[in-house]
């Protein structure tokens, strides 16, 4: 299953009227109520049997019937992949069960992650400089993705691109290529390819110590951390 195409299924579904849930045996109803009560956490079969207080053969038969009627589903619990874990079909696994946004059916969704990385990089390359909000909006408007991504997810992706030296995090100075971005706003700049061997070549701002300073977000003209008192900035000016 891929998240790059096809209908989205991340939202909770509403049970339809006259659904199979209306015609369950007594044992199926007991088991279904136990499973459904666990919502997006689901339940392990051993715990299910204890709570339902039904014999193993009755539980196994009822589980099969509920799956055939599409009322429950087996999900992968990344914390205990060897255990059979069930959940009502109207719920999607919580982050604790599924592993979060970067996991699909219990495994790290490397295809989705890499596709998102490449798309983010291309969008920033086109704009040269972009804010987190701009990249997020561009990705969510891209037709190939059927799952809306959050700013936090995009920020995590951008962080990996920074580590790979594909982009850099900078602060807008409100001029030139930053003219459309408010002064001081954190944004992301594409690192052009060039130099020997096709290695990434940073833009002019990368040579400024501010571009890699971990305290840049606290730096203000008249603050405790300031360009006026920064020895690294002064050295760069002298150089």
From TrEMBL:
Annotated region described as Disordered, given as residue ranges: 1-22
Keyword list, A-Z: DNA-directed RNA polymerase, Nucleus, Transcription
Keyword match Transcription: yes
Organism annotation: Salix udensis
Job of this protein: DNA-dependent RNA polymerase catalyzes the transcription of DNA into RNA using the four ribonucleoside triphosphates as substrates. Specific peripheric component of RNA polymerase III which synthesizes small RNAs, such as 5S rRNA and tRNAs.
Phylogenetic classification of the source organism: Eukaryota, Viridiplantae, Streptophyta, Embryophyta, Tracheophyta
Stated family: Belongs to the eukaryotic RPC34/RPC39 RNA polymerase subunit family.
Pfam families reported in the protein's UniProt record: RNA_pol_Rpc34
A Gene Ontology biological process term: transcription by RNA polymerase III
Localization, UniProt: Nucleus
Key word Flavoprotein present: no
InterPro entries: RNA_pol_Rpc34, RNA_pol_Rpc34-like, WH-like_DNA-bd_sf, WH_DNA-bd_sf
One GO location term (cellular component): cytoplasm
Name of the protein this chain belongs to: DNA-directed RNA polymerase III subunit RPC6
Signal sequence bounds: none
């Amino acid at each position: 299953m891929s998240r790059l195409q096809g209908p989205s299924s991340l939202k909770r579904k509403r049970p339809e009227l006259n659904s199979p849930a209306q015609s369950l045996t007594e044992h199926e109803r007991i088991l279904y109520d136990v499973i459904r009560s666990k919502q997006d956490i689901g339940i392990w079969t051993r715990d299910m049997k204890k709570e339902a207080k039904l014999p193993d053969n009755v539980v196994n038969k009822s589980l099969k019937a509920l799956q055939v009627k599409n009322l429950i589903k087996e999900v992968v619990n990344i914390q205990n992949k060897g255990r059979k874990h069930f959940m009502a079909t109207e719920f999607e696994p919580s982050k604790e069960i599924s592993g979060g946004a970067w996991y699909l059916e219990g495994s790290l969704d490397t295809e989705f992650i890499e596709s998102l990385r490449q798309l983010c990089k291309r969008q920033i390359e086109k704009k040269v400089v972009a804010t987190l909000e701009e990249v997020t909006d561009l990705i969510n408007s891209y037709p190939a993705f059927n799952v809306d991504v959050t700013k936090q997810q995009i920020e995590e992706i951008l962080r990996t691109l920074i580590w790979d030296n594909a982009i850099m995090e900078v602060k807008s100075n409100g001029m030139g290529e930053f003219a459309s971005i408010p002064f001081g706003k954190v944004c992301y700049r594409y690192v052009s390819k060039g130099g020997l061997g096709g290695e990434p070549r940073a833009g002019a701002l990368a040579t400024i110590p501010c571009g890699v300073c971990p305290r840049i977000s606290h730096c203000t003209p008249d603050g405790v951390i300031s360009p006026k008192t920064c020895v690294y900035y002064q050295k760069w000016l002298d150089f």
